[in-house]
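User: Structure please.
Assistant: Input sequence and predicted structure:
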Amino acid sequence: MFVLYCSLLVAFLFGSGPLDEFTKRVEQYAKLHKQIDHKVPDLKKETDPKVIVQREKEFADGIRAARPLAREGDIFIPAVQPIFREIIKQETTGEAGRKNRSMILGEGNPKGPEAEASPKVVVHAPYPSAAPLSTVPPSVLKRLPLLPEALQYRFIGHTLILWDTTGNFIVDFMPDAIR
C-alpha cells in the first residue's frame, strides 16, 4: 500500500510518471509492430489457415529478432505495477467487483478448470490456439491505459499479459495482477 501511495503521490506532484513511461513503451512497441508488419506478406483476402498461421509466425519471428533481449517488466515497468494492481483490486473486490473477478478468473481463463491448453507465461511465448482468451471486464479496461489496436490486455490465471493479436504471443506480463 505504501508503494502505491508513493507512486500516486509522485504522479500527482510530477505528472503521471509511471503511467507516462508505460504509455511511451507501448507506443515504442506499436511503432516496431508497424515496421515488422510492413515487412511480412499482407493477408487482406487470405482464407487459407496455413498461410495465415505462416504469416503470424513470420511476424512473431520478426518481433523476436527485433527484441532479442525482451524480458518481463520491459513494458509493465516495476513503477507502474502497483498502480495497475490497485486499479484491478478496486474493480474486483466487494459486491460490485465479484462479477468482474468471476469474469477474469472463471470460465475463459486459460488457467481455469475447463481449459484444455494453458499458455506458458513467458515474454514472446506463443498463445496456443486451443487456449481460451480471458475476458477483461469493460470497467477494468476503462481504467487501464489505452492500448493500440494490435495489443490487448488478457489474463492467464492471476497474471495480466499484453497480448499481440497479430503475432499471437505474449509481449509482456505482470504476475499477481489480481489477488
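Helices lie at 2-14, 17-39, 49-66, 81-92, 94-105, 138-143.
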